[in-house]
Amino acid sequence: TIILGIETSCDETAASIVKNGREILSNVVASQIESHKRFGGVVPEIASRHHVEQITMVLEEAVKQAEVIWDDIDAIAVTEGPGLVGALLVGVNAAKALAFAKNKPLIGVHHIAGHIYANRLENEFVFPLLALIVSGGHTELVIMKDHYEYELIGETRDDAAGEAYDKVARMLKLPYPGGPEIDRLSAEGKVTIDFPRAWLEEGSYDFSFSGLKSAVINTLHNAEQRGETLDPSDVAASFQQSVVEVLTEKTYRAAQEYNVKQVIVAGGVAANKGLRESLKKRFSSEDIELYIPPIHLCTDNAAMIAAAGTILYKKEKFAALDLNANPSLMLE
Ligand code: ATP
Ligand code: MG
Ligand code: FE
After folding, report:
1. How many Å lie between the centroid of ligand 3 and the Cα of residue 11?
2. What is the rounded CA–CA span in Å between residue 63 and residue 254?
């Protein structure tokens, strides 16, 4: 099975061709980060316009690099949501046009299912598994007993982990996107500030990062008023420690309680070095297999959409040509 995947939900225009859900034949990503940087975040109008400008070239490049012809491609999978509606529509319309013109089945993929299936590109799933999803818009713990069966056991009650990283980075006057910047600074700093950890109610697998965000603001304000300057790398290291500790511990407890065989990590924050190390350490003595994708597959790409689309192709879950973008699509 050869699937063409298309992803345009946020600020990456991406197309990829994947064979049998595992083998990446091409994976083209045109990032818009430079264009959004001076605004300190993604500007939806600019994102849509860039997608329109880039999509044709990205698609052509993906087909060319894969060294396939259209006859080889079995179906076209595209992110239908969630994400920015204007951005999603560019990918959805390109996918519909191609499906119609080339007479191929169309498949709508949930963006987070894509992040989850990025894990399967290099390592086969073993069920039941636990997925920790940590991205720009989501922080969730999901149990999977089989392909494409998602049971949400915990989620954030306010900010997503990536969102918290980006907001704290802005307070520290670091460039967008802030996650990688804080990660880099953390390695140079020391944990000198005891920021709160939101464990929530006993046994809860939910998350909350808004209290931590406020604590960082207050700490910076208080220091400023006292005329002190805090070392930004220490603030970054202390913040990261607080986030990573809660993510690791809740993932560990859930893995135990649900008796999973495998733990996978998905989304942009899975690129975080502190989180990767902490999870590896926590699961080192367990029978549970921990797998974290390589960094280029953690952030937005289309190989993950093709990988998830392969499963839907096998299940014959096709979309009609009136497929629409759905900015608030649910995973379950
Ligand atoms: P979603 O997937 O929820 O729709 P998104 O697609 O915008 O949101 P991703 O592309 O999965 O999110 O991830 C981007 C987020 O990951 C940003 O918030 C970014 O700061 C964060 N991020 C990327 N690399 C790192 C890192 N090394 N450490 C921490 N955060 C990181
Ligand atoms: Mg992005
Ligand atoms: Fe994403």
Report:
1. 9
2. 41
